[in-house]
Specification:
With 411 residues, the chain is α/β, with parallel strands linked by helices. It has two domains: 7-210, Rossmann fold, CATH 3.40.50.300; 221-392, Rossmann fold. The protein is 44% helix and 15% strand. Helix 6 crosses helix 8 (168-177) and helix 13 (327-334) crosses helix 14 (355-365). It starts with 12 loop residues before the first helix and ends with a helix. The relative contact order is 0.11.
Length: 411
């Protein structure tokens, strides 16, 4: 079957012209599946792996809808997009501006960590699309500065992450104040039981689209692991950076202190690096992201709050300096590389303390990561511990099956 182009999806000429400027030629699978449903006016739950074009899938038809309405826009928003992080809100706003550059679409980003005054001024001048994090949005609604009376489209982006971060009550509070009938869209990398429960309270007869199996990883990501003592991780990382001169690296640590320490040690060795985490102000975080995006900083060291809020082109390597406690976060971390069809490397530094997390990751992705042992810090002890742990788990599983079958026979 031939892949349709964007014009065949029914998008208007100004939107098509903007897509051409962006270099987009054909829609991705999630865009092919979601855009017609959204243009039909149906509620939607959509799942696709990170980096497959989810943002364009929901923003393009909404921009098109607003742009093709009769002249004479109102002052209050028609579209409300909720996101879990400030970085993601700003990324979506950049995308909307790019896709709507020929339409006159008016946007406003509503988020915490910065003064609310400029956001209030923009809302008072009139906007079509608001992209918001839940906390600041609720503040402005309660102050009477944000009016939801005319919202026709409610979008929850990275809905699973919002649930993970405890935003479920806030999301329901907001949804209760957005009038019905409306069109509600949930976009997520995974569809969990929590997502389904949320959908049942905010949507009506939603259609479901999933273009990749849950917890899937793009084929063009080379997933590797290096076994190394915890004390040697920084030396291994520095060596790797010195050998891979041309790459752009995103490094994930388990804690904010860890991110600060790793970035500082890289700087001490002459490597341009910056740390980004939740304790930094929004201005500091945006400055760090901008420096990374422009190539002024080669290495960005981040915590998991950035796992879904970073959309920077040409990240060649994602390094798990610490493996995540939640294996699902591994999927979102490594999804920062190999975007838009490019290839990338996901490298995990595994010490003895990381073995349970590595086993969880390998169970989730249903494969063993490729072992890279051609470095001076390779730890045979760590590798042996993983082998022993895996054998023990298999033995327990076989024993459990045997006991289960025996007790069933006795019954």
């Amino acid at each position: 079957m031939n892949t349709p182009n964007f014009s065949e999806l029914g998008l208007s000429e100004p939107v098509l012209r903007a897509l051409d400027d962006c270099g987009y030629t054909q829609p991705t699978p999630i865009q092919q599946a979601a855009i017609p449903i959204i243009m039909d006016g149906d509620d939607l739950i959509a799942s696709a792996q990170t980096g497959t074009g989810k943002t364009a899938a929901f923003t393009l038809p909404l921009i098109d809808d607003i742009a093709t309405r009769p002249a004479g826009k109102g002052d209050t928003p028609l579209v409300l997009i909720l996101t879990p992080t400030r970085e993601l809100a700003l990324q979506i706003d950049e995308n909307v501006k790019a896709y709507g550059k020929y339409t006159g679409i008016r946007t406003c980003v509503v988020l915490g960590g910065v003064p609310s005054g400029p956001q209030i001024d923009l809302l008072r001048r009139g906007v079509d699309i608001v992209i918001a994090t839940p906390g600041r949005l609720i503040d402005l609604v309660e102050q009477g500065e944000m009016v939801l009376d005319d919202v026709e489209f409610l979008i929850l982006d990275e809905a699973d992450r919002m649930l993970d971060m405890g935003f479920s009550p806030d999301v329901r509070w907001i949804a209760d104040r957005v009038p019905t009938p409306r069109q509600t869209l949930l976009f997520s990398a995974t569809i969990s039981s929590g997502i389904k429960s949320l959908a049942s309270t905010v949507q009506t007869e939603a259609r479901t689209v999933s273009v990749a199996p849950p917890a899937s990883v793009a084929d063009n990501i080379d997933q590797q692991v290096m076994f190394v003592r915890k004390a040697d991780k920084i030396d291994l990382l520095i060596n790797l950076l010195n050998r891979k001169k041309g790459g752009r690296f995103l490094v994930f640590t388990g804690t904010k202190i860890g991110a600060i320490q790793v970035a500082r040690q890289l700087q001490n060795h002459g490597i341009k690096a910056s740390a980004i985490h939740s304790n930094k102000s929004q201005v500091q975080r945006q400055q760090a992201l901008a420096a990374f995006s422009k190539g002024k900083v080669r290495v960005l060291v981040a915590t998991d709050i950035m796992a879904r809020g970073i959309d920077v082109e040409d990240i060649s390597h994602v390094v798990n300096y610490d493996l995540p406690n939640d294996a699902e976060n591994y999927i979102h971390r490594i999804g920062r590389t190999a975007r838009a069809g490019r290839a990338g490397v996901a490298l995990s530094l595994c010490g003895i303390e990381d073995i349970p997390q590595l086993r969880g990751v390998e169970r989730l992705v249903a494969r063993s990561l490729d072992v890279q042992d051609d470095h001076r810090w390779h730890s045979t002890r760590v590798a042996a511990c993983l082998t022993a742990s895996t054998k023990a788990a298999r033995s327990r599983a076989r024993s459990g099956k045997a006991r289960g079958s025996g007790s069933k026979w006795r019954r």
